UniProtKB/TrEMBL annotation:
Protein name: AAA domain-containing protein
Residue ranges occupied by any AAA+ ATPase domain in the UniProt entry: 38-206
Any single Pfam family the record assigns to this protein: AAA_5
Top-rank lineage group of the source organism: Bacteria
Coiled coil: none
InterPro entries, alphabetized: AAA+_ATPase, ATPase_dyneun-rel_AAA, CbbQ/NirQ/NorQ/GpvN, P-loop_NTPase
GO MF annotations in UniProt: ATP binding; ATP hydrolysis activity
PANTHER family: MAGNESIUM-CHELATASE SUBUNIT CHLD, MOXR FAMILY PROTEIN
Organism: Nocardioides marmotae
Length: 293
């Protein structure tokens, strides 16, 4: 359990995250630092494509830690999140024991098949048991059913997991935990209480330009400015799916590929499909931005 695995200050977080390609604003860097220093899970909430998942990956890269990811979905259960017993293998062992004619008692068999060898470890248990620095990413936690949060609580509050047949497994080294949520539903107060909270939103124009330029260095600076300004205007429209940072980066790559040196209305209209993925959004943008074809 060492906080030394992570960041030594907010500035250190900024610098080291940037070195791995993640440009954090001051609030993000500070919270990332605190999550490591206080060894508290970090809940990151915000719309799709603002860098929630990437933050966890960047913390892992910046610290040389391994990323263990639990992707949440509707119907996720304990067997997929924590551990399950390998029934097939257990059954084979029972049959094999019977076949040898050894009169093993049930107690002996039971002690034999509920051991490490028959345990299938899922992400939460994997992260708890690792002895090397680990970032545990619990991604899109709002997609699970509320019951799963009960499961997360034991892990997040005590950093331990109880397996009835084996006993309690406590973390030797606390993972850096990042939970992400698109806020499609409210998480329970109990989960929130255990976490530090960060609301991530779309970056301001300057930061977005830095992100785009760092990932697509060949993009002309003036075009980069036009690009982020247009993206910002699109995000103000009532769209089904506002363009995310990933789409800004894709757009930049598109402009390079097409050798577009000026993002005028025609260029925007011609390449809008890279940024907007719904016909109705497309129509709305053409109308509201008064794009000429
Ligand atoms: N601060 C950032 N610095 C660099 N790249 C970023 C940043 N935020 C987002 N990105 C880029 O945007 C993409 C989408 O981010 P992601 O983390 O997948 O979004 P979500 O919030 O939906 O989890 C990432 O692949 C990454 O390339
Ligand atoms: Mg994500």
């Amino acid at each position: 359990m060492t906080a030394a695995d992570w960041f030594s200050s907010p500035d250190d977080a900024t610098t080291r995250l940037a070195a791995t390609g993640y440009l954090a604003d001051p609030a993000t860097a500070t919270t990332a630092y605190l999550a490591g220093a206080l060894q508290k899970p970090l809940l990151v909430e915000g719309p799709a494509g603002v860098g929630k998942t990437e933050l966890a990956k960047a913390v892992a890269r910046a610290s040389g830690a391994e990323l263990v990811r639990l992707q949440c979905y509707e119907g996720l259960d304990e067997a997929r999140a924590l551990y399950e017993w390998n029934y097939k293998k257990q059954l084979l062992r029972i049959q094999a024991t019977q076949a040898t004619g050894d009169a093993a008692t049930w107690d002996e068999t039971h002690d034999d098949i509920f051991t490490e060898e028959f345990l299938l470890t899922r992400p939460l248990l994997t992260a708890i048991r690792r002895e090397e620095p680990t970032v545990l990413l619990i991604d899109e936690v709002d997609k699970t059913d509320v019951e799963v949060e009960g499961l997360l609580l034991e892990v997040l509050s005590d950093f331990q997991v109880t397996i009835p047949e084996l006993g309690t497994v406590a973390a030797v080294r606390r993972p850096f935990v990042v939970l992400t949520s698109n806020a499609t539903r409210e998480l329970s107060e109990a989960v929130k209480r255990r976490c530090l909270y960060l609301h991530l939103d779309y970056p301001d124009a300057e930061r977005e330009r830095e992100i785009v330029s760092s990932q697509v260095p060949d993009l002309d600076e003036r075009v980069a400015g036009q690009l982020v300004a247009t993206i910002a205007r699109l995000r103000e429209l009532e769209l089904k799916k506002a363009p995310s940072i990933a789409e800004s980066v894709d757009w930049a790559r598109t402009l390079i590929a097409l050798e577009i040196g000026d993002l005028d209305d025609k260029a925007v209209a011609d390449t809008l499909g890279v940024v907007l993925k719904h016909a109705s959004d497309h129509d709305r943008a053409v109308r509201e931005l008064r794009l000429r074809k």
